[in-house]
Design brief:
The protein is of the alpha+beta class. Helices cover 48% and strands 6% of the residues. It is built from 10 helices and 4 strands. Helix 2 runs antiparallel to helix 3.
Length: 228
């Protein structure tokens, strides 16, 4: 309070200048070399007091750092608003941005050091082995074509972390792949089948083991009846 009240001209000049942060640093160096004394109280022209008020002791470095960052950001926002003082939009936007700097609004927190993330609580599914189909050895071949999958792997037997966009693309493709594989399983006892899809097993590797258990001949290009 002594610094801000005793040297308002230095603080104001530092905040109004385009190079306000460098000027503020030099101004504070001058203030630091001055002898303390009593001053007349008055309105405080800046939010610098938030830094001093937040710092409750030498060990409270995180809170001091956070307050300092918010203080510097608020200087820039208010200077931007002053350059567009006649614009209602700039004034409203600046006020909204200053509100967002409040940690009670933005919900900023400083987690304790050494706290590890919680392990996933999801249970890993377990499937029993599938028995082989009775495949047709003759007849007209039934064919399916499927576009290649997205270039990512979805592990069905373990937690998988993917961006939302990639996850949606895989989910959409996997639905089509499951329909095609189910159609092959349904028709295989009655006529030979071929499902052509380059790279099909890269995206759903668990399905590769299932189709092998069902008796299909599998390759990187897809699957087919064992008689083909």
């Amino acid at each position: 309070e002594h610094l801000v009240s005793a040297y308002p001209d230095i603080i104001k000049a530092s905040c109004d200048s385009p190079d306000r942060l460098s000027n503020l640093s030099r101004g504070l160096q001058k203030i630091g070399s001055a002898s303390p004394g009593s001053v007349t109280g008055g309105p405080l022209p800046t939010t610098l007091l938030r830094v001093a008020a937040t710092n409750s002791g030498p060990s409270d470095e995180a809170a001091t750092s956070s307050s300092t960052v918010r203080f510097c950001e608020e200087i820039a926002i208010r200077a931007w608003r002053m350059r567009h003082a006649d614009s209602p939009w700039h004034n409203e936007t600046a006020e909204n941005m200053c509100i967002l700097l409040d940690p009670d609004v933005s919900a900023d927190i400083f987690p304790s050091e050494g706290v590890s993330s919680r392990p996933s609580q999801a249970s890993i599914p377990h499937w029993s082995r599938i028995g082989s189909l009775c495949h047709a050895a003759s007849g007209d071949v039934c064919r399916w074509e499927l576009l290649p999958p997205p270039p990512h792997t979805l592990q069905l037997d373990a937690p998988t972390s993917l961006p939302l966009r990639v996850g949606l693309a895989i989910a959409s493709w996997a639905e089509e792949a499951c329909r095609a594989i189910a159609a092959c399983v349904d028709r295989a006892p009655h006529q030979p089948v071929i499902l052509h899809c380059p790279g099909i097993w890269a995206c759903i590797p668990s399905a590769h083991a299932w189709c092998l258990d069902l008796g299909f001949s599998c390759s990187d290009a897809g699957l087919r009846s064992p008689s083909l």
